[in-house]
């Protein structure tokens, strides 16, 4: 059930992701009409060259960009015979010629047949700003936006005019905003009037990110009067919003860590909660799930590379089945002989975890195995001032989906009913005709299977090695014990709380110390509430 | 009074064990130092050090058995007390290096010079004196155990919960000691020791001396445990193990008994760690790893918990096997260790010593009843044995049996 739900979810989102991929190609037209302008560069002194560069830039056609770059680098030559201009590169004794517009090869020329178009530093500056404004007018909005961002970083006062024309022409609101911000940054860096600078401060202050902040701090520290006051208020405002975003980012990271903990712990919560069995080999079930993913990807790489994006979807049911089957095997073979002796169960399953680890090490080698991210899991996007990576986001959704599915199984199916009955009162359940040994085996299989699908998810963010499981086992126990045994809501709240608390401690105490604090906190918490946050209520006196 | 307390603990079996232990403690170093190397009875120095290490492990196993076998507290964090004792000794040994370190600083150990520290942290003061370090070997693990136990037992954390938080405790310490700014050498730990009490740690005679010290410490702690478990206190401990609530209802302050034996056990583990470090020549945070602590538990389980001889035998046997396997068949060792965990819990819940002594008393009982049936006057062994329904626990042996 949980599987179906998560499958449907993942497929739905996959379709959305595939639809948004294509980017319109930049149109190229009437290139040839530019050729006279380019060839005009062949004759002329610096002054004329400067004018010609201006003419080229005024066309607003990005096709001329390579020629201008070559000119700036001193690679633009003209052929003496017909005054044709070429981009050149050294080849043996002579030069290899490239057409500056089509960028196709145009044969070779001897050393004496061509002559370099001269360029100096002031011309280079002209070329640079011309290039900047050229890309600012490119057909592709993405290129325009990147160009504007580049200007923002360079804060080049020379780019202001180019930006002005670009802003006037711009039709895309988003790109215009970036351009205005770039203009503001350039204005603040120029020697323009305070009035214009005040406007620029206003623009930057509404931008509200770290780049704007550092610019404004620079203004605040170097200016006087109104401008300084305006910059100071803007800095304060931005710092306030940034602090809020920082908290949001921390919560996000915390939830992400919490969902990883939840995935690792949720299977444990079932086996521990229902049967009181401490399964120290639980981490190895996670590890096996990760290795199933690895195997699936290997098979897909070798036989059907086109299916790679679906590899995780294929791995999910397989991991569930493999880990679940191993879980049932463990229960039937080992654990059922040890009921009523929890401490010995702990030791036996620990021994089992050693064996499983070494078995995987012998089969797959001790090194990390590479599990690839499908396209829809890689990359990131931004919400305001915080970055969200797709793999973390999917894992949060996935963890919640698994949790919801498990809740459904436990609350709405006959199997869940039997399981809860056995949890609450084993002997009474047996008297009512429930085959408790079967329930035990299936529940253990379910918990292990869920550990397996957790392994599929964790293979995306962690190294797949025989030690994968060990890294999670103590944390998972902490989550289960903190949340309260036998209560899945407790596990959810426990995992998310520990995740968020961990991430909030990290900036102050460092990752390791933060973790130590959390451990000490749990040790103290257990003293206060020995049965966890959400303890099962009952009349049973502890044995 | 103390001596009578200890000597009362001696019976035939314990006496025999102690005599063998002490004989080995004398014989092995003697053969190493006195016999020529060509003699077939000569024990090479590396073997002396190895066996010395086993003895410290045996002491650690004994301390775990005291709380697990007799009080039902399964500690998955005794490695922490062992390592803390080891660090206390390691700090003394570091201070003994003096200006002979790589950087030649008269006061600061090498790693502090490397980290560009200017002065010695306050908690390193005093460790240049052996008596202070020796007290710390007992005090630091004891204090940690006391504080931890005081909280844990008072709020009645028992069973697997306690096991898990002891594991969390040692895990937290592992993470802490890995940090460089803790001032304990971080990842590399403390090593490169030169001498102990003025003797070169590498010398044969020092190694023999450390072996003897380990043997004596084990013998003394064995005697102490024996006396503790046979006293009235020991009976209460067993009662706590088998029926904690009932013992509490009878009016015993269960948490006090637990706390006492827990702290004693931690101190014993500290001694073991302190003797381990100079023999091995290094102490690093790896000793805190939870896997180590669990391994100690399996030594106890193999030998037989609830018996004091068992853990000693278990520790030596398992570690001997480990040394042999990791040299001859390194890939197999984890399979063997894992199999040991499974085999012992499934098929040998009483461990070697427990099973043997159970078999022995069963044999004696059968011959006694056979003699009775044959017309002899002797009464049958134990009246309750045939009536006992829980066949797993059926035993007329006077020595306490393990239970959860």
UniProtKB/TrEMBL annotation, chain A:
Keyword Transmembrane helix part of the UniProt annotation: yes
Stretch forming the signal peptide: 1-27
Topology relative to the membrane: Multi-pass membrane protein
Transmembrane parts of this sequence: 251-278, 310-330, 393-410, 437-457, 477-501, 508-526
Keyword Signal applies: yes
Gene Ontology annotations for the cellular component aspect, listed alphabetically: plasma membrane
Keywords, sorted A to Z: Amino-acid transport, Cell membrane, Membrane, Signal, Transmembrane, Transmembrane helix, Transport
Subcellular location(s) per record: Cell membrane
Pfam families according to UniProt: BPD_transp_2
Primary subcellular site in the record, as a coarse category: membrane
Record-level GO BP terms: amino acid transport
One Gene Ontology MF term: transmembrane transporter activity
Family affiliation: Belongs to the binding-protein-dependent transport system permease family. LivHM subfamily.
Name of the protein described by the UniProt record: Urea ABC transporter permease subunit UrtB
Organism whose genome encodes this protein: Roseibium aggregatum
Lineage, uppermost ranks: Bacteria, Pseudomonadati, Pseudomonadota, Alphaproteobacteria, Hyphomicrobiales
Name of encoding gene: urtB
TrEMBL record, chain B:
A single cellular component GO annotation: plasma membrane
Topology of this chain in the membrane: Multi-pass membrane protein
Compartment list: Cell membrane
Any coiled-coil regions, as ranges: none
Keyword terms: Cell membrane, Membrane, Transmembrane, Transmembrane helix
Keyword Metal-binding: no
Lineage: superkingdom: Bacteria
GO MF annotations, alphabetized: branched-chain amino acid transmembrane transporter activity
UniProt-listed InterPro entries: ABC_transp_permease (IPR001851), ABC_transptr_urea_perm_UrtC (IPR017778), LivM-like (IPR043428)
Residues covered by region (Disordered): 371-404
Pfam families: BPD_transp_2
Membrane-spanning segments: 67-89, 129-153, 160-178, 208-225, 259-277, 297-320, 332-349
Protein name per UniProt: Urea ABC transporter permease subunit UrtC
Annotated gene: urtC
């Amino acid at each position: 059930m949980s599987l179906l739900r998560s499958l449907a979810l993942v497929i739905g989102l996959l379709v959305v992701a595939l639809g948004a991929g294509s980017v319109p190609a930049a149109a190229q037209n009437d290139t040839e009409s530019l050729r006279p302008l380019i060839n005009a560069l062949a004759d002329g002194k610096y002054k004329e060259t400067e004018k010609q560069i201006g003419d080229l830039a005024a066309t607003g056609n990005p096709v001329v960009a390579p020629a201008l770059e070559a000119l700036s680098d001193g690679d633009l030559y003209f052929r003496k015979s017909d005054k044709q201009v070429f981009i050149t590169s050294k080849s043996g004794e002579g030069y290899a010629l490239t057409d500056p517009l089509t960028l196709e090869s145009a044969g070779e020329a001897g050393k004496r047949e061509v002559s370099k178009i001269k360029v100096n530093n002031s011309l280079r500056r002209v070329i640079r700003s011309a290039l900047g404004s050229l890309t600012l007018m490119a057909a592709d909005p993405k290129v325009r936006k990147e160009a504007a961002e580049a200007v923002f970083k360079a804060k080049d006062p020379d780019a202001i005019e180019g930006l002005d024309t670009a802003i006037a022409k711009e039709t895309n609101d988003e790109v215009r905003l970036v351009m205005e911000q770039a203009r503001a940054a350039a204005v603040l860096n120029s020697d323009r009037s305070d009035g214009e600078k005040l406007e620029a401060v206003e623009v930057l202050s509404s931008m509200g990110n770290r780049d704007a902040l550092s610019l404004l701090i620079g203004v605040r520290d170097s200016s006087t009067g109104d401008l300084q006051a305006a910059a100071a208020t803007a800095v304060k405002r931005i710092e306030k919003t940034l602090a809020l975003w920082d908290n949001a980012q921390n919560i996000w990271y915390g939830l992400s860590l919490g969902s990883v903990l939840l995935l690792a712990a949720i299977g444990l919560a079932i086996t521990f909660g229902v049967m009181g069995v401490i399964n120290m080999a639980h981490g190895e079930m996670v590890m096996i799930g990760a290795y199933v993913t690895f195997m699936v990807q290997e098979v897909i790489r070798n036989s059907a590379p086109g299916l790679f994006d679906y590899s995780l979807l294929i791995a999910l049911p397989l991991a569930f089945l493999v880990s679940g089957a191993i879980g049932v095997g463990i229960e039937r073979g080992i654990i059922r002989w040890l009921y009523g002796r929890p401490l010995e169960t702990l030791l036996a399953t620990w021994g089992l975890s050693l064996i499983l680890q070494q078995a995987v090490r012998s089969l797959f080698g001790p090194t990390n195995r590479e599990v690839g991210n499908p396209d829809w899991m890689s990359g990131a996007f931004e919400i305001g001032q915080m970055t969200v990576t797709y793999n973390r986001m999917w894992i949060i959704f996935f963890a919640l989906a698994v949790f919801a599915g498990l809740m459904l199984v436990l609350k709405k199916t006959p199997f869940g009913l039997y399981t809860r009955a056995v949890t609450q009162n084993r002997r009474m359940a047996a008297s009512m005709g429930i085959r408790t040994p079967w329930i035990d085996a299936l529940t253990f299989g379910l918990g292990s299977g869920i550990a397996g699908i957790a392994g599929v998810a964790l293979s995306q963010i962690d190294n797949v090695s025989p030690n994968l499981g060990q890294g999670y086992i103590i944390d998972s126990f902490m989550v289960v014990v903190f949340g309260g045994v036998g209560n899945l809501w407790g596990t959810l709240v426990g995992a998310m709380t520990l995740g968020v608390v961990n991430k909030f401690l990290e900036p102050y105490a460092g990752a390791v110390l933060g973790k130590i604090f959390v451990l000490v906190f749990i040790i103290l918490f257990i003293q206060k509430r020995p049965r966890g946050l959400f303890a099962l209520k009952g009349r049973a006196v502890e044995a | 009074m103390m001596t009578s307390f200890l000597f009362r603990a001696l019976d035939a079996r314990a006496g025999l064990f102690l005599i063998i232990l002490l004989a080995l403690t004398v014989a092995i170093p003697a053969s190493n130092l006195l016999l020529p190397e060509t003699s077939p009875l000569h024990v090479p120095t590396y073997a002396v050090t190895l066996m010395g290490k086993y003895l410290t492990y045996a002491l650690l196993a004994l301390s775990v058995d005291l709380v697990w076998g007799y009080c039902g507290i399964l500690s998955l964090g005794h490695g922490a007390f062992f390592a803390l004792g080891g660090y206390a000794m390691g700090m003394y040994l570091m201070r003994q290096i003096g200006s002979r370190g790589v950087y030649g600083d008269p006061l600061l150990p090498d790693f502090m010079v490397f980290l560009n520290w200017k002065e010695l942290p306050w908690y390193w003061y005093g460790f240049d004196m052996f008596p202070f370090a020796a007290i710390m070997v007992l005090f630091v693990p004891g204090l940690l155990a006391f504080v931890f136990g005081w909280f844990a037992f008072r709020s009645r954390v028992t069973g697997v919960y306690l096991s898990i938080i002891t594991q969390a405790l040692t895990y937290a310490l592992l993470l802490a000691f890995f940090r460089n700014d803790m001032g304990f050498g971080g990842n590399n730990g403390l090593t490169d020791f030169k001498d102990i009490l003025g003797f070169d740690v590498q010398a044969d005679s020092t190694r023999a001396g450390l072996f003897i010290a380990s043997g004596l410490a084990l013998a003394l702690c064995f005697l102490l445990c024996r006396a503790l478990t046979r006293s009235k206190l020991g009976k209460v401990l067993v009662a706590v193990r088998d029926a904690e609530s009932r013992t509490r209802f009878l009016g015993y302050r269960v948490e006090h008994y637990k706390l006492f034996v827990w702290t004693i056990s931690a101190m014993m583990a500290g001694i073991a760690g302190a003797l381990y470090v100079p023999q091995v020549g290094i102490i690093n945070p790896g000793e805190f790893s939870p896997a180590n602590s669990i391994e100690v538990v399996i030594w106890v389980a193999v030998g037989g918990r609830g018996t004091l001889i068992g853990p000693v035998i278990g520790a030596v046997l398992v570690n001997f096997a480990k040394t042999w396997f990791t040299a001859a068949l390194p890939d197999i060792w984890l399979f063997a260790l894992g199999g040991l965990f499974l085999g012992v819990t499934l098929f040998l819940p009483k461990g070697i010593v427990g099973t043997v002594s159970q078999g022995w008393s069963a044999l004696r009982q059968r011959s006694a009843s056979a003699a009775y049936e044959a017309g002899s006057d002797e009464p049958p062994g134990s009246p309750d044995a045939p009536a006992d329904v829980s066949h797993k626990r059926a035993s007329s042996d006077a020595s306490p049996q393990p239970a959860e």
